[in-house]
Amino acid sequence: MGLCATASSPDDDSSVLFFLKTKQSRRAGLRQNLARAAHQCSQRKPPAKPSPVSELDLYDYQLPRELIAQHPLSQRADARLMVVDRRSGSIEHHYVRDLPSLVEPNDAMVFNDSRVIPARLVGLRSQTGGRWQGLFVRKDNETGLWEILSRTRGKLKVGESITLEDRDARPVETLEVIARLPDGHLAVRPGSDGEPAELLERFGRVPLPPYIREGQMVDDDVKTYQTVFARDPGSIAAPTAGLHFTPELLKQLQAKGVQSHAVTLHVGIGTFRPVQTETLDEHEMHYEWASISAETAEKLNAARAAGGRVLAVGTTSVRTLETVAAENDQLVGWTGMTNLFVRPPYKFGAVDRMLTNFHLPKSTLLMLVSAFAGRELIMEAYAAAIAEEYRFFSYGDAMLII
Description:
Layout: E1 6-7, H1 23-40, E2 80-84, E3 91-95, E4 108-112, E5 114-116, E6 120-125, E7 131-139, E8 146-150, E9 161-165, E10 171-180, E11 186-190, H2 196-203, H3 221-224, E12 232-235, H4 247-255, E13 259-265, H5 269-272, E14 288-292, H6 294-305, E15 310-313, H7 315-328, E16 334-338, E17 353-357, H8 364-373, H9 375-387, E18 398-401
Helix pairs in contact: 8-9
Catalytic activity: 7-aminomethyl-7-carbaguanosine(34) in tRNA + S-adenosyl-L-methionine = epoxyqueuosine(34) in tRNA + adenine + L-methionine + 2 H(+)
Protein name: S-adenosylmethionine:tRNA ribosyltransferase-isomerase
Pfam families: Queuosine_synth (PF02547)
């Protein structure tokens, strides 16, 4: 089901090369990537016929703009929690703080511990002096170049420079455009040496989605757009289902006998890139780095064997677990690049329950939850959420699918 994952070491994500210096190396790299993809996916053949639920328009809905949450609640666990029962089709209304009463001892919750980096870039174009905004995507370990997504109208040319500004509008760094990439992204060379996480701390901003105050951050976003268990820097968007948890709620869950475990998926373009094809089968996910330790895998396998249920917090946790289970028929220690696209129909192999936010129309995230609960039930739940005036998207309310 749209999976082609490559293993790599935890410190090396260069198995997917996206910057190539010359035409010759570009052709050679393309041949290598195609050969690798063919080998990895040789056992996974696409369905002979399109799925009856593969039409993009089936995942559309109309959302009043006033229901898009612009700020988080002052108390994270006060967010509303819709509970959707896949078997009975029932829909109930709770709060996130009620979660300890909705789980059982020996259940295992899985969080994504990736930490959001200040990936939003602001500056001036050297040729025109016009304002520019962009998003850091990732660094290529072989060339040292950065991949960025330009969010400003106007085509930047190869050789053009961008002068980046810090949070006080002072010029601090330059980016030289080296190449335009096939997907519309840019390959740029920073003027300073150093790792992206280190440099971005100097001049980057919180990468809020454009539907939150048009992407304009306030000081509180530095803390509120980060989960309390974020550890490993690397995401360019928050794993938002985790934003509802507080240390107090985690203690209550622990007292109930619920296990808490962490996996890592660095949220990249693959998670929120819009689907622009008429059918889901034509959409290709970008690769993202993910990891699960052998110890965590062993404990999750043991929990299920003992009758416990794995409750994945967020779609990124789901994709990490399902990537590993699809490749190995069970959970094992694993680190690699994944472009798993979960959409109906899909047979889940590692996740029993899911806690997630409410997602954008026609998004791959909406398709993932539809694969888990059924498209019709999910669309019914979304209609109920709109009628009950739930808060939507990153800073919004949550859904527990059981």
